[in-house]
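Deliverable D4.2, example record:
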Amino acid sequence: MSDTTDNIPEENEDSLHQSIPVTGMYKEWFLDYASYVILERAVPAIQDGLKPVQRRILHAMKEMDDGRFNKVANIIGQSMQYHPHGDASIGDAIVNLGQKELLIETQGNWGDIRTGDSAAASRYIEARLSKFALDVVFNPQTTEWQLSYDGRKKEPVTLPVKFPLLLAQGVEGIAVGLSTKILPHNFCELIEGSIQILEGGTAQMLPDFPTGGQADFSDYNEGKRGGRVKVRARIEEEDNKTLLIKDIPFGTTTNSLIESIIKANDKGKIKIKKVVDNTAKDVEIQIQLAPGQSPDMTIDALYAFTDCEVSISPNACVIIDEKPVFLTVNDILRYNTEQTKVLLKRELEIRRAELMEKLLFSSLEKIFIENRIYRDIEECETWEAVIQTIDKGLDPFKPDFYRDITTEDIVRLTEIKIKRISKFDTFKADELMRKLQDELKEVNHHLKNLTAYAIDYYRNLLQKYGKGRERKTEIRAFDTIEATVVAANNAKLYVNRADGFIGYGLKKDEFVCDCSDLDDVIVIRKDGVCVVSRIQDKGFVGKDILHVAVYRKGDERMVYNLIYLDGTSGKTMVKRFQVLAVTRDREYDLTKGTKGSKVLYLTANPNGEAEIITIYLTQGAKAKIKVFDYDFSSIEIKGRGAGGNILTKYPIRKIQHKMDGVSTLGGLNIYYDASIGRLNTDQRGKLIGNFLGEDKIIVFYKNGDYELTGFELTNRFEASNVLLIEKFIHERVFSTIYFDGGSKTYFVKRFLIETTSLNKKFNVISDHKQSYLKMVTSDKQPQIKLTVSKGKEREEQEFDLDMLIDVKGWKAIGNKLSPHPIEDISLISSSKEAENETSEDEDLEIGSTIDLNVKKDDEEDQLGLF
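Output generated by the structure prediction step:
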């Protein structure tokens, strides 16, 4: 027995100090590991859109497939023959495939992606391949095979998928040094996109999420790195005290969403009373609002502070030729479409070869039997003689065959049974060959017209499997929500004017207003310095504070009226200014900045009001008139850095407010952006009017409701349901046509708005569930064109609505529009009315025909025609 310690080097001083470099090992081993994770674990192949574990699961299920459901535990065991990892990862992958409801039919509790509930144990749930998977995923003849990890079995390198499966299912994976995130797309839209590509066009694909919701894809960037998708829950207003969440954003669950809402409420960002999860067949989360909370503001706050809005960053990375490649989703779709065309071609070529072989053997069989070649071999004494005899008997016919006759062909002829020979029917043989020839002709036609064949293939898929797979996610353009605007007032602002402290922790000092902990605070001191600072528990901003308030960046309506004494010249200056944008915590001088300057008078006017004041000069002043009035409206509004105008060069004893003024800014032009259902002052969408303090907006909805609202920019409108929105004029008459679901008849009515309640809906049509408002207009003399059917003929009629019916109450039923079936209703613009219109307010209305700048193409939209 040899000494095992012979090979161990003796320790010496030199060996103890030797170092082994790991650079080489790191480069080789780590790069091998990274390559393995990228290629074999995390990133899908572009050919079939599957990760290795998914591909092995589907292959195992195909081997097990007998049309019946199999226990998932059995599928896991079968898959482990190909996948060299644990059963847990395989089980998770199967559940993930099953929840996508495309390749696998499921039975049992497979969990719920909406609620986050996990699936039952693998021994309790069952699965089988879907008909769609059997149709488009498998074909052993076109599959490239490789040995499994232990060399005992064969597995596919990639599956011959004839469909953009990668984009339909989506995928997410994290590898070493890179990741992939391809969002799911709509089944039907992918097929239609492939057809467009085959027809020579281009396709622009947008994701579609299984959880529905609303999404803004304006920054999608075709799914490349750097893109972004904003997804929102669908929130409906059940009443003024209750909101309902109907769909949730992709990647969230009802549980995580509710947790984020509770967290935002605890932090004071929103104010709610209760959250109830009523999710069953459909998602429904009920949010009960705290008293006094605006539903519109709360909806915006939910989007700003909770998971009701999430941002997703796509990153389309796939494996091509064993390398990770970053592509766009449109590139992936084009690749998959071309691949499908190639696979269809290979299938046709294989089928053509099979048909030609069948025709060849059928011809050989017919010749062998009809020419009685089988009798010539009766006297042959050796096998070689049999083969030679048959081969010689076939010689006259060989030129007609598409290939040479081989020994294997002749051997097959010898295997024909006597019973088949005796019952051979020439007519049936010819009929069979004719069918094979017809099919071969059809296959050759498809090969010559491969693009048309591929288009028909996709259309057949759409017809066969497209039902019930319509788009779930609504494509919308989202407005930007300012968190500081919609945050609930969860703090109180206090001020110590003399010592110069502000904050929500100074509860013993002067209360200023309710505010949010996200707000900025503007402070103007007696020395003429203005500073904007983030609200905090207690912060020093300088002594002798004259004005403190919550600061709204870019508020053009807030105007400050200021009188200050210039320290150098001794003159008293007056100015009006706005503070639109500042750097936080930077001091801005509102005076000329000279030593000794100080503020004598200051007011903050949220709507640009210009008051009248009385100036009292000192008794020792040399001026003849020592008391005079000054109207702030006499000077222009300028920037905060302006020096102002000279009010007087004499010393002032006091300044006294004399009379409140009106706004010098005029009314506010309000626009309605139908793409997002919001009001704005940025000239986006339709101008609906110039508004002053007490003005209102009236909105008519397609379900027959109307409501009066203020013109706050936080108001939300469901754009798809809005039929007419305009400035409310109390004496204006509205003419409507509605369809009564009970009598299946159109009715016309004209009425004044008699209600005054704000943000409360009133219905002006019948209460049948199939009733809807067809048309509404505020024209003084509205005209309509009807297309009615009288028997087999159609007739066009024109009416003045004001001649059809008098103005009645808004609750009136109205008159029947026509005794004949109505096929079409259109509203005719009254240009004469527009020319004679003189009211400036009405000149800005949507819903009237008075705006001469409206394009003809937009006329129906302008008139509120549904």
